[in-house]
Amino acid sequence: MDLRQHFHTRGGRAFMGVLMQAVFAAEPGDLSALWAASYIGAAGGVDVLIDTTGRSRS
User: Most exposed: 10, 25, 43, 54, by fewest CB within 10 Å?
Assistant: First the structure.
């Protein structure tokens, strides 16, 4: 994913770069923007993917 193509602010690019590394353990250039958006949507949003409170989703 080319962050400059999909995110127009420096803050947006920085956030997505960190998110891609933390959630997917991959560099943004190694992922498709459409696949990442689909994955995030299927999970229920970014908050669900980065939540670290230890709650179970059973």
Answer: 54
